[in-house]
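=== How it folds ===
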Amino acid sequence: MTVVEHFVDLFLHLDQYLGMITEQYGMLSYLFVFLILFCETGLVVTPFLPGDSLLFAVGALSALGVFHVGYFFVLLCIAAILGDTVNYHIGFLLRHKVEQKEDMRFIKRQYLEKTQAFFERHGGKTLVIARFIPIVRSFAPFVSGVGKMRYSRFLAYNVVGGILWVTVALFAGYFFGNIRYVKENFSLVVIGIVLVSALPAFIAYVQECRLAKTAAACYNENQENREDGGLRK
């Protein structure tokens, strides 16, 4: 099994792997989950980590008594808020490289540009909305640091977004993760979570394409009118 195949298998069967880790390491599994969530939100180079599905899986296992949902709720809220805070400061430190459009080995510029465009449309609310969108979630705090957003303002959105995201995803798993159909089709549920999470970004992309086409059509029409006017003269 290749590294990619192993990662996909881990991603689709998080509930099983988490159960195995808990049996083997006990309380250290809390630290393991904390670090994954922290890295996904705190390190701009790890947007591929499974934040949404991990929270859902933890919630489902908590309902079975494997974890204590209250402990995890507090722990993962801290991980989400702390992660975005670290990411913000990384962006602030690297702002000159980003502004000068210097190449950064581990950071895809296309993701940065998409997140910046998202910020232009939604402003500071992006930090809350982005919590529910994979990839954008990892880049939003970084872009906030690059843009030198006032830290007090950033922190307010960070805390609200982090708590809201953990609450929705964790307790969705807690209340629905052990329904028979969900348990028997966990892989499909994980894929569904990813698709639903990516839906806002997809809709925004489609709208952006439509606006671009409309702008291009208007520009071409204006150019034709100018040419026609010039010929009449």
